[in-house]
Request: fold
Amino acid sequence: MNSSSNPKLPLCLEMRRRRQALNLLQADVAERLHVSPECITLWEGGLRRMELAKLPRIAAVLKMDARELCTKALAEFYPNVYEAIFGASTQLHQKSA
Reply:
């Protein structure tokens, strides 16, 4: 896809910025994902996690790389699972360094 993930930017802000860069309203994204606009507001505000199963569709709507989006979400939402799969020395996991 067109966009590359920024490892230092939280997923919720990256999604908001990408939506805005594409000139999409939250309602537009919500309609394409079959969720409520309030759901998008909560995701972008970091107040609710999206289901991991929705990430490939979110990536398609926001024209983001699905693998990068899924990896970033896994690192943020489930750091222990991320570390078990990818190890502690990967780039996403070093964002605090």
Q: What stands out?
A: Confidence is low (pLDDT under 50) at residues 93-97.
